[in-house]
Amino acid sequence: MSAKQLEQAAQATKTVFVFPGQGSQKAGMLAELAEQFSSVQATFAEASEAVGFDLWQIAQSGESLDQTEFTQPVLLTASIALWRVWLELGGVAPKYLAGHSLGEYSALVASGAMSLADAVKLVNLRGKLMQSAVPQGKGAMAAILGLEDAQVIALCEQATASAEGSVQAANYNAKGQVVVAGDKAQVEAVMALAKEAGGKAIALPVSVPSHCALMQPAAVQFAQALEQTAIELPSIPVIQNVNAEIATDTAALRQALTEQLYQSVQWTKTMQYVQDQGIQYIVECGPGNVLANLAKRLPNIEKAFPLDSKSRMEDALNAILVAEGKIA
């Protein structure tokens, strides 16, 4: 399907596609679908040639899959493989695309804004820069559950005021679910304060504190790579992480991708935006179902579908074709 055909098909639908970020990876991902659809391994071969190492081998064996410089291109490639299978099967073109953190790059590739080859090279570099920006063991991330956004922000300010270092809200994932990131001591202070305030705090097993001020050195270098990458306006609108808005020019798109490294992921606002536009169906295009599960809590969403197995792909395909009036 051409970019123009995608754009025209997307305008009439009530479906949004969302692409997951780090944390959704698992060894053996897409193995079942690869047996049936040659486009899955073809997509991995295309991306592997671009980055110079075997992404399918990493995806299947799990070797080095927890290292962010490999995790990011593997996840992006898996998401685009699923997107291509969806289109191959005649799936509905969504009205909007959105991606959580790394997933924003998957959304941009799906929209035609950048090539898969350029995107996997970008996110491989992004992972390297993020890892080198903070010494091992210095940073941390934690999920804070059961508190209002404003409470979490206040706890971050309290923890930062009491000592050197920083911590801030990194991901606004849903009502009552905010991830914080920053210097390890400050993150641990927020966790303790959150428990005192009646919330829950869960340390996340990550090697890099994403979407916080510690990533600013990485952002400076990454901006240079973005400037050298060919980017067009998406054929299907992509809702950006940093402001839950749609870029109107490529300069704004590049700026948003740079800021995404050290600013919060506004996923709660992104989901509110799609509901305000009359979206009723959410499809998670990537390994796992984290975003689909978050979407099930939304009051105006009728159904959320993951795509990461043959049965899930078929369920989503048929249900949305019926709901959108494409088949009886």
TrEMBL record:
Record carries keyword Mitochondrion = no
**Which protein, by its recorded name, is this?**
Malonyl CoA-acyl carrier protein transacylase
This protein's gene is called fabD
- Entry keywords, A to Z: Acyltransferase, Transferase
Record-level Gene Ontology MF annotations: [acyl-carrier-protein] S-malonyltransferase activity
The UniProt record lists the keyword Acyltransferase: yes
Q: Which Pfam families does this one have?
A: Acyl_transf_1
Q: Which InterPro entries match?
A: Ac_transferase_dom_sf, Acyl_transferase_dom, Acyl_Trfase/lysoPLipase, Mal-CoA-ACP_Trans/PKS_FabD, Malonyl_CoA-ACP_transAc, Malonyl_CoA-ACP_transAc_FabD, Malonyl_transacylase_ACP-bd
Enzyme class, spelled out: transferase
Family membership noted in the UniProt record: Belongs to the fabD family.
Malonyl-CoA:ACP transacylase (MAT) domain residues are 18-312
The organism's superkingdom is given as Bacteria
- Kindly state which reaction or reactions the protein catalyses: holo-[ACP] + malonyl-CoA = malonyl-[ACP] + CoA
Which EC numbers characterise this protein's activity in its record? 2.3.1.39
